[in-house]
Design a protein that fits this description.
The complex is a heterodimer of chains A (228) and B (157).
Chain A (H helix, E strand, L loop, with lengths): L1 H11 L13 H29 L7 H4 L15 H25 L3 H31 L20 H32 L2 H5 L3 H26 L1
Helix pairs in contact in A: 2-6, 2-8, 4-5, 4-8, 5-6, 6-8
Chain B lengths: L1 H37 L4 H26 L7 H11 L1 H23 L1 H6 L18 H19 L3
Classes of the chains: A mainly alpha (228), B mainly alpha (157).
């Protein structure tokens, strides 16, 4: 009985007023809610892709579709190689973003600038990889409404495969692009000493949340399109 | 103040290193499984590998959200307001994939055209440079015409 009372008072204390029940800044809560809504958008896309794939008898083999590599001779067979490089680029840029956030907490302007520059370079590298891949697939005849790849079992495929691939990786690529823009703005604001004047680097943390979310979505896109 | 900050930084950097290593290892294991799957034809084993890859994917997602996005170190109130709504995904995924699968079974049972079309093999095109530049519509028409030819030959029963 006494245990219950203690638990309920402990539980209630955050909501009795005079305290911040989430104990984070307003902008950060709102960034989390925005990311939650974005997660539902991406989730809807990916679940729609899964539903269509489950309702179809055949599907192209990703290892036969994504097997090329920049500067490699035509007809090279290197499945998963290029996309794994893209994945590692995004993971590394996520790590440098964490380091930038940590540096921000220490009020270490130099550390923030250095790590933000690395994060921006990683983002641009990822976008360049994706641009190359799209261009390559387009040259092979793949685009929205066009699918030159046959199903893994040798039967004729529909355009669902390319439609979903370009829509979802395109939507993700757009997120990476806007993430790079946000990071560049954060870098400029850091260089202008905006955060030093404010006395905190909370904006870097919010940009970081967005950037990690982009990395998180790639984990799902990478698995759904290239591996499974 | 500076002492606690220093301590927090050391602790934080160790965690970042640990999580980076975990994410890299998980990705490498995923890729190994992906490469391994290329040569496997057994449908059951392929399904098992795909399941493993998806479990590893969820583990990666957990590490990114919990440590990189710092959610694990937030208050339980905040964690719950984010994680509980996302629990809807459990229902979404089960319901929609089940529905898609059921739609395929229904079509295979009641739509002979759908069933037949998904059993006709397309002749593999010779790998030619720039072969894909032809108009998509013409290509599709060609494929269908070809498929019909194959049907008349193969459809004996």
């Amino acid at each position: 009985m006494s245990n219950v009372t203690t638990a309920s008072t402990k539980e209630a204390k955050w909501w009795n007023g005079g305290k911040s029940p989430f104990d984070v800044e307003y902008g950060k809560v709102m960034m989390w809610y925005f990311l939650m809504s974005d997660a539902f958008t991406f989730g809807a896309f990916l679940i729609s892709y899964g539903t269509v794939r489950f309702s179809t008898n055949g599907w192209p083999d990703p290892n036969l579709v994504f097997k090329s590599f920049p500067f490699a001779p035509e007809g090279v067979n290197a499945p998963l190689v290029f996309v794994s490089i893209m994945t590692f680029i995004l993971i590394v840029s996520s790590v440098t973003m964490v380091l930038a956030v940590h540096a921000g907490k220490m009020m270490d302007k130099k550390g923030v600038v250095r790590n933000m520059i690395w994060t921006i370079i990683g983002g641009i590298a990822f976008l360049s990889c994706q641009a190359w891949e799209w261009n390559h697939l387009h040259h092979e005849g793949a685009w929205w409404g066009r699918n030159p790849f046959i199903n893994a079992d040798g039967t004729a495929s529909s355009t669902n495969f390319t439609n979903y691939f370009f829509t979802i990786t395109g939507f993700h690529g757009f997120h990476v692009f806007s993430g790079v823009i946000i990071n560049i703005i954060m870098l400029i604001m850091t260089l202008m000493d905006k955060f030093e004047q404010r006395g905190h680097y909370l904006m870097i943390e919010k940009a970081g949340l967005y950037w990690h979310f982009v990395d998180l979505v790639w984990v799902f896109v990478f698995t759904c399109f290239y591996l499974v | 103040m500076s002492h606690t900050a220093q301590h927090e930084e050391n602790h934080g950097n160790g965690e970042v290193k640990k999580v980076t290593i975990i994410l890299s290892v998980l990705t490498i294991v995923e890729l190994i499984l992906g490469f391994w799957m290329i040569g496997i034809t057994s449908e059951a084993l392929r399904l098992a590998i795909k399941g493993t890859i998806i479990i590893l994917m969820m583990a990666k997602a957990f590490y990114i959200v919990a440590y990189f996005m710092h959610l694990k170190h937030e208050l339980k109130n905040l964690i719950m307001t984010i994680v509980v709504p996302l629990g809807l995904f459990i229902w979404f995924i089960i319901a929609f994939l089940y529905d898609g699968n059921s739609f395929r079974n229904l079509r295979n049972t009641y739509d002979p055209y759908f069933k037949e079309r998904s059993t006709i093999k397309v002749e593999k095109k010779a790998e030619g440079h720039g072969g894909g530049h032809e108009a998509g519509a013409a290509h599709a028409a060609d494929t269908t015409a070809h498929a019909k030819d194959t049907v008349s030959v193969e459809n004996k029963h």
